[in-house]
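User: Run a structure prediction on this.
Assistant: Running it now.
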Amino acid sequence: MYCSHCGKTMDDSARFCPFCGAVNQPGGYAPTPIAGQLMRPRYPRMVAGVCAAFALHYGWDLSLVRVITALAIVFTGVGLFVYLAAWIIIPEAPFVLPDPNAPGNVPGSPGAGI
């Protein structure tokens, strides 16, 4: 079997690649987000990131989306069910780790450890 991240040969029973440390997915498949896919970001969000997901995906003002959502919840009540459904349906964005080789992330460099 080959690592889906670095392409090096690895044991079929290994959970992680011994060369790059990537998780071994069955069949060499590693799920990656599709460019432009609607995803709930980890920042900036207040409750579940549903408003932030729509605002970032469509380029809308985040405050305006939050106000419209709050008004829809207060005046119609249906907005709450739509929000909860979107919370369940829209996937959460994956964690993004900093590049260890980027300037400032190298131990001993200026700005490291901030």
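DSSP finds three helices and no strands in the chain.
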